[in-house]
């Protein structure tokens, strides 16, 4: 169990850093897709489509094994964060873009009438409301990213699944090791899923008001 808990800690750290980087990155991509500048919009669309279209395992292996071919070596922990943050940003960009577009046009017109700058409009009007709309979906996706950290065993990161496999290969008792690893995932995922359901209900009640 101490070895599993050490891997569990690594999984939580990768999840936290990936979300801290990926969600703001997703907001920037959402804004980039919505701008009028064609070059910036094309770049944002490229990053979104690659991040969504390529499996997370492919992104992990590309960054960890592919970039050294360009004389750019990254440690497994940093590679995991970059890959999962890219994947997070690509998916959450669509969530953020949809939530931004859900704000009534009248509020945008009101901000123009009050001579708000684009930054102030985004900061004081659009973001507070859009984040409230996007929050349940972002929380649900965060659970998927936590579960997706199990793919990091492919790049030799000592996370939970890697720890379970190492214990199994040493003791030849794969079943109890993987069962304990699954229980640790469930200890986070199930309460988090219940919390997301609660947030969705509260958001639904707020929308009805």
UniProtKB/TrEMBL annotation:
It comes from the Bacteria. This is Amino acid ABC transporter permease. The keyword Cell inner membrane does not apply. Belongs to the binding-protein-dependent transport system permease family. HisMQ subfamily. Its main location: membrane. PROSITE patterns: ABC_TM1 (PS50928). It comes from Labrys neptuniae. The chain crosses the membrane at residues 12-35, 42-64, 70-87, 133-156, 176-196. It is found in: Cell inner membrane; Cell membrane. It is a multi-pass membrane protein. Keywords: Amino-acid transport, Cell membrane, Membrane, Transmembrane, Transmembrane helix, Transport. Residues 4-196 form the ABC transmembrane type-1 domain. Pfam families: BPD_transp_1.
């Amino acid at each position: 169990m101490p070895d599993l808990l050490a891997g569990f800690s690594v999984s939580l750290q990768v999840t936290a850093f990936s979300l801290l980087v990926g969600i703001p990155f997703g907001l920037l991509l959402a804004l980039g897709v919505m701008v009028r500048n064609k070059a910036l919009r094309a770049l944002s669309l490229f990053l979104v489509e690659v991040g969504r279209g390529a499996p997370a395992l492919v992104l992990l292996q590309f960054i960890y094994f592919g970039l050294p071919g360009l004389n750019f070596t990254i440690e497994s922990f940093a590679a995991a964060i970059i890959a999962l943050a890219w994947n997070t940003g690509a998916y959450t960009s669509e969530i953020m873009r949809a939530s931004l577009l859900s704000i009534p046009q009248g509020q945008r017109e009101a901000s123009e009438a009050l001579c708000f700058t684009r930054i102030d409009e985004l900061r004081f009007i659009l973001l507070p409301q859009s984040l409230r709309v996007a929050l349940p979906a972002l929380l649900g996706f965060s659970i998927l990213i936590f579960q997706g950290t199990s793919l990091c065993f492919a790049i030799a990161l000592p996370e939970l699944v890697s720890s379970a496999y190492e214990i199994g290969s040493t003791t030849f008792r794969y079943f109890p090791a993987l069962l304990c690893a699954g229980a640790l995932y469930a200890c986070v995922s199930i309460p988090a899923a219940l919390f997301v359901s609660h947030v969705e209900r509260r958001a639904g009640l707020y929308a009805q008001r």
